[in-house]
Write a structure and sequence with these properties.
Number of helices: 7
Low-confidence stretches: 262-267
CATH architecture: 3-Layer(aba) Sandwich
CATH class: Alpha Beta
Radius of gyration: 17 Å
Mean pLDDT: 90
Structural class: alpha+beta
Helix content: 25-40%
Shape: globular
Strand content: 25-35%
CATH topology: Aminopeptidase
CATH superfamily: Gcn5-related N-acetyltransferase (GNAT)
Number of strands: 11
Length: 270
């Protein structure tokens, strides 16, 4: 799965779409994600259940070659009120049911969760599996209509999520943290309260996200730690005349422990 280089830089496309609109790309996302997880010894994860493919309230961001043949990374936004609980509810609900009330309260104005963030080894070090997908996910949130975003973060992603406007939510778990999925892995609950204005985001990240919102389909040369990558952004969501957030919110119901089937090794951490 070789990268195409231009002037020494990798060239990729970062594309956003609603999951049910592109089943073939969803399958490629799943295969790529499972391959990466298997390489680090994670055999079974929540996302590998694949139900999100059929969730009308799931949106996908994928990093691929310009011809669409190779996949290098991805992320998702799940909107509360779809056909599944949010991944954070599935992951932590049995440890602290207060997460259900928290998500329910935010869902009344439209909320979602950034999840399933990954990148392949070929593109490691260029920021795809960290800052650029994260910015892109936040950039498309107003198109979806949601006002906030949840994330369940591993320790090494907390500073990243803070830089784009998330804050730690201390009302659940142990001051916001869970030992999950096992006692040697800490997961932290983060919330971006202000998707529209990004009032807590660092200035550089805020400006980059707002620029992507204003120019959803744009080619940019991005740089991280002196490494450059050319990204062809395609962030304008298609078929949004068939999306109705009000209906999703209206259909939402508060989850309970009985709704959650959590297996010991399931994991969905950003």
């Amino acid at each position: 799965m070789s990268l195409i280089l231009k002037d020494g830089r990798p060239v990729v496309r970062l594309r956003a779409f609603r999951a049910i609109d592109d089943p073939r790309t969803c399958e490629r996302f799943i295969q790529g994600h499972e391959h990466v997880l298997a390489a680090i010894g994670v055999k079974k994860v929540t996302s590998s259940k694949n139900d999100w493919m059929y969730n009308p309230a799931a949106f996908v961001l994928i990093v691929e070659s310009l011809d669409g043949e190779n996949v290098y990374g991805g992320a998702r936004i799940h909107v509360a009120g779809g056909s599944q609980p949010l991944p954070i509810e599935e992951a932590t609900g049995k440890m602290d049911p207060k997460i259900f009330n928290l998500v329910w309260d935010y869902a009344q104005e439209g909320t979602g969760e950034g999840c399933g963030l990954w990148n392949s080894r070929e593109i490691a070090g260029y920021g795809i599996g960290s800052i650029f997908l994260t910015r892109a996910a936040i950039a498309i949130a107003p198109q979806i209509g949601i006002k906030s975003l949840f994330a369940l973060c591993a320790p090494y992603t907390i500073n990243l999520t803070k830089s784009v406007g998330y804050r730690l939510e201390s009302s659940v778990g142990n001051n916001g943290t869970f030992y999950y999925p096992k006692l040697d892995l800490l997961a932290t609950t983060m919330i971006l309260d202000d998707v529209d204005n990004l009032s807590l985001a660092d200035e550089g990240d805020k400006n980059a996200i707002m620029d992507l919102r204003n120019h959803g389909d744009v080619v940019r040369i991005e740089e991280l730690r002196s490494k450059e990558i050319e990204i062809h952004y395609m962030l304008q969501l298609d078929n949004m005349d068939q999306w109705d957030l009000k209906t999703i919110v209206h259909n939402a119901r508060k989850q309970t422990i009985l709704d959650i089937s959590m297996k010991e090794k399931d994991v969905q951490i950003m």
